């Protein structure tokens, strides 16, 4: 994998971006796929299985307006444990979106009467279409779930889950780590923030990110065991790390989710995990990546139900 050796082509080295630089960055973002065709069509097919709730609409100015939807169990019952599944917080992370939809279509029925499900397949539709990490304002939605978050995508999801924030037993936030993280998005972030870019290493394989405040190591390992039946798990690098964080168990690192404003902090769920699939591996197909997300969700829900007491 090639890593950039020159400064990102927008901005001035050492100076954070202003409005002109953000506008220049946005002008480079080209629609590459259709949210309506890929996601809304799939959601429409699920209307017989779920209560489909439009929880907001993203106004992307000249790029249009994007309704955002959640899938809610038709048999939602008070007293049952609740689970939240989110995908596409970073729109370019394809298997997060399609893995959530695949789980909803093929496996959600297995939990009917045992668990209330709320599935949000694509939090960031503008970014999904442009295969982009940030939203249209060059803001990372997955750093915007704290009190000072500025991403509209994150604010709408926070409002959706707020009434149930204390009711969730489990939250699975489905992500990917890609070669473009190192080739495009981390250099762009360094330029945006006026910082030097320091090359890193992309892990080959699946891993999870636990919440450092309450990492639930046995829960994370149950997810890893489930996914290992579908695809390979990322090893630690020579420093014993994955993306700069110490590996605390096979395929597991921890982040301070609330401090960083990550989506994994949006509920008070006891069991929460951020999945990270590696779609650029020569050992993984797109179908495997989707299947890995599904396996992670199933393993998480099964563990949570078995340890809900």
UniProtKB/TrEMBL annotation:
Domain Peptidase M14 intervals: 31-309
GO terms for MF: metallocarboxypeptidase activity; zinc ion binding
UniProt cross-references to InterPro entries, sorted A to Z: Peptidase_M14
PROSITE patterns: PEPTIDASE_M14 (PS52035)
A GO BP annotation: proteolysis
Gene3D superfamilies, sorted: Zn peptidases
Organism domain of life: Bacteria
Family the entry assigns: Belongs to the peptidase M14 family.
The protein's name in its UniProt record: Peptidase M14 domain-containing protein
Top-level taxonomy: Bacteria, Pseudomonadati, Pseudomonadota, Gammaproteobacteria, Lysobacterales
